[in-house]
Amino acid sequence: MTSSSLRLIPDAINRFGARVHAVDGHRWNDSTPCTEWTVRDLVNHLVSEHLWVPHLLAGESLEQVGDRYDGDMVGADPARAWDEAAERSLAAWKGADLSGTARFSFGEAPLTMYADQMLVDLTIHEWDLARGCGQPEWLDPAAVDHSLAYARANAERVAGLGIFAAPVPTTSTDPAVQLLSLLGRAV
Q1: Whose CB among 98, 116, 143, 169 lies 3.0–4.6 Å from 111's, allowing a Cys bridge?
Q2: Domain presence at residue 187
Q3: Domain of residue 95, residue span
Q4: Which residues lie closer than 8 Å to 5 by C-beta, 6 or more apart?
Q5: CATH number at residue 26
Q6: Nearest Cα to 110, choosing from 57, 162, 70, 180?
Q7: How far apart are CA 28 and CA 104, in angstroms?
Q8: Is 77 a member of any domain?
Q9: Number of domains making up the chain
Q10: What digits encode the pLDDT tens for the residues 121-132?
């Protein structure tokens, strides 16, 4: 599963970036399916997440990184902030050795799990961004399939982290709808 994650992450980063660049200037304060976040807040979250990537893949601890990526990381130009974070993240993923572990806010975990989680995060938030600013909501089928397999296999653990809303029941057979519903999105 992880080799798929590592292979899929660069395209997921690029797709998210394309959506960031497609945000109309007046839509940055629009709401998203992440009820506490505007479009700008959502992009800020992803910028922060991707600024962490090089540090965690290089074996740095949470304490070593500290709070340098807390708060507003996008400033006056969210697209530029995304581009810079994405460039650093892509470089780190391309050279990544995922055989080790890292210490995360939820505890120590394999870097392979981190790769899976980052792909899920990129995929889900790509949809959130699209929905929040009126873009087409299409998601890459390979990223959806991989993310859905991960989400299903880790549903209890993910629910316990409290980072996603409760699952939304669905009868849909569409894998994207199943993924979004499992991670608390009403489609």
Answers
A1: 98
A2: no
A3: 2-182
A4: 112, 115, 116, 118, 119, 146
A5: 1.20.120.450
A6: 57
A7: 29
A8: yes
A9: 1
A10: 999 999 999 999
Question: Cα(11)–Cα(23) distance, rounded to whole angstroms?
Answer: 19
What are 105's two structure tokens?
Answer: 């806010």
Residue 14 domain-assigned (yes or no): yes
Q: What are phi and psi of 137, to 5 degrees?
A: -95, 20
What average pLDDT score do residues 60-87 get?
95
Three-state SS letters, the chain: CHHHHHHHHHHHHHHHHHHHHCCCHHHCCCECCCCCCEHHHHHHHHHHHHHHHHHHHCCCCHHHHCCCCCCCCCCCCHHHHHHHHHHHHHHHHHCCCCCCEEEECCEEEEHHHHHHHHHHHHHHHHHHHHHHCCCCCCCCHHHHHHHHHHHHHCHHHHHHHCCCCCCCCCCCCCHHHHHHHHCCCCC
- For 126-169, the pLDDT digits (tens) are 999 999 999 999 999 999 999 999 999 988 776 666 667 889 99
Burial class (CB within 10 angstroms; exposed 0-12, middle 13-18, buried 19+) of 83: middle
Strands 101-104 and 107-110: antiparallel
Residue 29 in any domain: the answer is yes
